[in-house]
UniProtKB/TrEMBL annotation:
Upper taxonomic lineage: Bacteria, Bacteria division WOR-3
Major localization listed first in the record, in broad terms: membrane
Record domain TonB-dependent receptor-like beta-barrel: where: 268-661
Keywords: Cell outer membrane, Membrane, Receptor, Signal, TonB box, Transmembrane, Transmembrane beta strand, Transport
Protein topology in the membrane: Multi-pass membrane protein
Pfam hit, one: TonB_dep_Rec_b-barrel
Family of the protein in this entry: Belongs to the TonB-dependent receptor family.
Transmembrane segment boundaries: none
Record protein name field: TonB-dependent receptor
UniProt record, GO biological process: siderophore transmembrane transport
InterPro entries to which the protein is assigned, alphabetical: Beta-barrel_TonB, Beta-barrel_TonB_sf, CarboxyPept-like_regulatory, TonB-dep_rcpt-like
Recorded GO CC terms: cell outer membrane
Species of the source: candidate division WOR-3 bacterium
Length: 849
């Protein structure tokens, strides 16, 4: 029997007490063994025992003591970062008898949950419809999905840290995950919204930790495929997905697991219909090797890689989409991890990780491209500035409708993050568990940006290469009394842009939380903490290396209204408060309530600043936000049926929704430096007052499983069009109420040793649609006046086009010119894309050993 421990301190903790069933006296020095591992210990003088870093999953424990009947405790469920508490009764016996088997009952409420924690288990993941695995948290309270981005507790999308096996996968330039992994390799998801331990840095709103599958002792595999179908009652956006998973044990000491995921869709942002030039092709691979040198020392290696490439649609380029923007993102993660467990009360870990990502966008060369073929981009030196001409089906030209030329920008970003983590976990006393860690990160960041300002004579080129550094240290004491649990810790982070003359910044983040028993069925919890993260390095270095601007560039930069980076940006900060209750209503029904308040300061925003001759846009720590909310969850489950209802009430207000918010609202196409944004709060773009999720999961006869999800929520706020809404009142209207019901139905089928499964997914089963945007034509039709078209265009003119000459008399009359102009603008109408997608139907099958 060998212990195979997941990467880092991904396991949970088992502690408890062993005592005489008759006298209630503790039994010192009783033996405790976790079966199928080499984890074992003995009880202390008070009959207590502790085992750290037990792999998550179901375990069996054996308790033995001379003169007592051996006890085998089965179905002990261990979860990552959680503590399982056991009370074991042993009966005396004069002769050797067979062990008594006891089935452990899972704790319905967690004593050590001082902050809100959501755990999504492996059996729940396959039935959830999602594109990226990170989207799985969108069904949890406090989470809002808005315009393809995910916001936690009213924070910006870049305030969430996504991790794979406790290693961050966030690109420090863009703030988005550098890689993606298949959902079939994920064993469980740990979601910490708003309050988390001192070991987590670089996040202010939440942490999403994707715990990967543990290699098994036996050979096995699974392959699954699914696609959307077009029927008279459903619409297909060309969704296709294939997933594979293989367990490949090489020996008893050496085990491996491998996963591959392929994904294609004809429209990655579905609305009413498939938009042209919006297809997407992704793949991801994952592999892990676990090698156990001894029961105390373990070496673990893992690799994750993914590639995503997709086209974008924009109505301004509707007649020239082959020359519009496409995006490419490719990344990989390598991890080497060494665990050392000298005994059951001590755990040490050293981890070295390498995260790399390349992100490009521009005009791609025409395909076709296979699923594993990467986009090739048009050489930036060959880009032509886009123009609006009459080369379109309507024969008239409008500058905003680009019928010739190219998307005028090409960018190529590279991020390399090499990180070393040293961690320790020590049970130094029955009441105290000390966790500590040291982190060091070396960053290698590159950016090349090429922008045509108006022609190819003077392009703006931003080509930089910097090596910022980040350090962190933390210490936390987990205090565990009988009816009281506390976490007291702090974290210190230091960030340096590594630019001569600009010093780094250190930030101290204290955190404290406690949970205590009110009754034997009700726990109260509260926590307060400070959370920080450095600004995105794109905001730090953008165009900085071009300073001081030469005269021609000074004017061009002012002309295009570019945004200048600021190496003196400080870390953004959030102070969060939370109170909550966990309660057991009966053996099948639990309730969870929490209320929280967040104050976020030093958020990055854009303001005008004197740089050189002109006043330019520049990033500053100038924005703030205030968020409050409550979450309520009722969870009922038995062996056949589960129902979960979650309700969220929240208010998210601040001075900007995004770092570039003020720029787009006030400064873009408006170089007037006298415009000063009002320093007042408004409801942020992703503020959603009420959200309700109702989840039902039923195990039906004949190995059939039925799952249904009902979503209800308020519409998001928006600003009415026009100068008054743009410059004075923000987000004063709201889109209509939202509702949707999805369902999943699957059936297991056995073919000897092969386990098959067929499934059916219906998204938006009732075909309800709600408005999610306020798009229209490129030019408002109300702006087009026939009185402005008071000229004719003869056939001899270079502006003549036969498509606009309706009667083909060789002259485009004022009325024909006006009508062609109106028809051209109507062709850019995006109002059908203002609504959520139609009903979709997906079918699939899986086979596994």
């Amino acid at each position: 029997m060998w212990i195979f421990i997941l990467l880092f301190s991904f396991g949970g903790k088992i502690q408890g007490v062993v005592y005489d069933a008759d006298t209630k006296e503790p039994l010192p020095y009783a033996n405790v063994l976790v079966l199928n591992t080499e984890i074992g210990t003995t009880t202390d003088d008070e009959g207590r025992f502790y085992t750290l870093n037990v792999p998550p999953g179901k375990h069996s424990l054996v308790f033995s003591y001379i003169g007592y009947q051996t006890v085998k405790l089965e179905n002990v469920i261990v979860e990552t970062g959680q503590t399982v508490r056991l009370e074991v009764k042993m009966k005396t016996t004069a002769i050797e008898v067979s062990p008594i088997t006891v089935i452990s009952e899972k704790e319905l409420i967690k004593k050590d949950m001082v902050g809100t924690t959501y755990i999504i288990r492996k059996e729940e993941i396959p039935i959830l419809s999602m594109g990226q695995i990170s989207e799985i948290i969108t069904l949890q309270p406090s989470v809002v999905s808005f315009d393809t981005a995910i916001h936690v507790r009213g924070g910006r999308a870049t305030e969430v840290d996504y991790m794979i096996d406790n290693v961050s996968i966030i690109d420090p330039q863009s703030g988005e995950p550098a890689i993606n992994i298949s959902k079939n390799i994920v064993n469980e998801v740990i979601f910490l919204p708003g309050s988390f331990d001192a070991e987590y840095g670089r996040a202010m709103s939440g942490v999403v930790n994707l715990i990967s599958e543990r290699p098994g002792p036996n050979f096995g595999g699974q392959i699954q495929g699914g696609s959307e179908m077009t029927t008279p009652y459903s619409y297909s956006f060309g969704h296709k997905n294939t997933q594979t998973l293989f367990n490949l044990p090489i020996s008893q000491r050496l085990r491996t697991v491998f996963s591959l995921d392929l994904f294609h869709t004809d429209d990655w942002d579905p609305r009413t219909k498939i938009n042209p030039h919006q297809q997407r092709d992704d793949y991801s691979v994952y592999g892990k090797v676990l090698w156990n040198q001894s029961g105390k020392l373990n070496l673990n290696l893992s690799y994750a890689g993914s590639r995503s490439q997709f086209d974008r649609y924009r109505p301004e380029y509707i007649f020239n989409l082959d020359h519009y923007r496409s995006d490419f993102k490719k990344g990989n993660l390598q991890v080497c991890n060494l665990n050392y467990l000298p005994d059951s009360k001590k755990f040490f870990n050293i981890t070295v990780s390498r995260l790399w990502m390349n992100r490009k966008f521009g005009v791609r060369e025409q395909g076709p491209y296979g699923i594993f073929e990467d986009f090739e981009f048009k050489r930036y030196q060959l880009l032509e500035y886009p123009r609006g001409t009459n080369e379109n089906p309507f024969g008239v030209g409008i500058f905003k409708i680009r019928t010739e030329g190219d998307y005028p920008e090409y960018q190529d970003h590279n991020s390399l993050v090499i990180k070393t983590n040293i961690r320790s976990d020590l049970q130094i006393h029955k009441y105290h568990e000390i966790k500590s860690g040291l982190e060091w990160a070396y960053l290698d960041l590159k950016r090349f940006a090429y922008l045509l300002s108006s022609d190819t004579t003077n392009p703006i080129v931003d080509d930089w290469y910097y090596f910022p550094k980040e350090y962190g240290i933390y210490l936390q004491d987990n205090i565990d009394y009988e009816n009281l649990y506390m976490k007291v810790g702090f974290r210190y982070d230091y960030f340096s842009p590594e630019i001569p003359g600009i010093s780094g910044t250190g930030v101290l983040s204290p955190r404290i939380g406690c949970s205590f028993m009110i009754t034997d069925w009700l726990f109260f919890r509260t926590n307060i903490g400070r959370y920080t993260q450095p600004p995105l390095y794109d905001y730090v270095y953008r165009y900085y290396n071009l300073l001081p601007f030469p005269p021609y560039l000074d004017y061009l930069f002012w002309h295009i209204q570019g945004i200048l980076g600021n190496p003196e940006l400080k870390p953004e900060k959030t102070t969060s408060y939370e109170i909550g209750l966990q309660g057991i209503i009966n053996k099948n029904l639990t309730a969870n309530f929490c209320a929280y308040s967040k104050s976020t300061t030093d958020l990055v925003g854009v303001r005008k600043a004197q740089v050189g001759t002109f006043v330019h846009n520049r990033y500053f720590n100038i924005e703030y936000a205030n968020i409050q909310g409550t979450d309520v969850i009722l969870d009922y489950r038995n062996s056949i049926y589960r129902a979960k209802i979650s309700y969220s009430l929240s208010w998210a207000k601040g001075t900007s929704s995004y770092a570039d918010d003020v720029y787009w609202r006030y400064y873009y196409e408006n170089p007037d430096t006298n415009v000063i944004p009002p320093a007042e709060e408004f409801y942020l773009d992703f503020d959603q007052r009420h959200r309700i999720f109702i989840q039902t999961d039923i195990n039906l006869p004949f190995n059939i499983r039925f799952y249904a999800l009902t979503y209800l929520g308020n519409g998001f706020p928006y600003t009415p069009p026009g100068s008054e809404g743009k410059y004075i009142e923000r987000n004063i209207f709201r889109f209509p109420f939202q509702k949707q019901v999805d369902c999943h139905l699957d059936k297991d089928i056995l073919f000897g040793k092969i386990k098959g499964n067929i499934f059916l997914e219906i998204l938006n089963i009732f075909n309800w649609r709600h408005q999610i945007s306020n798009l229209g034509t490129v030019v408002p039709l109300s702006w087009i006046k026939e009185s402005d078209f008071n000229y004719t265009i003869p056939i001899t003119s270079s502006y003549y086009h036969p498509a606009a000459d309706f009667n083909h008399d060789g002259i485009i009359s004022p009325h024909e010119n006006y009508q062609a102009y109106v028809d051209l603008v109507k062709a850019t109408d995006e109002s059908p894309n203002n609504y959520s997608p139609l009903r979709r139907l997906r079918i699939g099958v899986s086979l596994g050993l």
